[in-house]
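Service request form, structural biology core

Requester: graduate student, group of Dr. S.
Request type: structure prediction, single chain
Budget code: on file
Notes: please return the result as structure tokens.

Sequence provided:
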Amino acid sequence: MKKILLVEDNDLICGLVVEILEERGHRVLVAQNLTQAHTILADQIKREGVAPDCIISDRDLKISDEGITFLKFVNENVKPVPTKVLFSGRSDGMPTVAREVGAHFLPKPFRLQELVTVVEKGSPVPV
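Core staff response, request fulfilled:
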């Protein structure tokens, strides 16, 4: 079982991702904005001494690129750096941007099995 922080403001996508990951035995913490993501991450580290095993973030939350900003923050402040996944409805240049922040990129719409594979294999992307 992995502990996963999902940062997603779309209720439909959030519900589907949570359902599929919890069915596979994972625990999913949900943040719907950047403030919640920072709070949940800090609480997790304070309470358990480690970050979640995986952070999944939408690229654009309420403000464009907020997901990228959060993943950069994770890289600079969390050790060891967890597996990161970035997804976006825009694919122009996004694989490169994701790689720059050490994240796997999944374009929307993505197949849920693709997400499950990345989460369960847990392979980091070099920054």
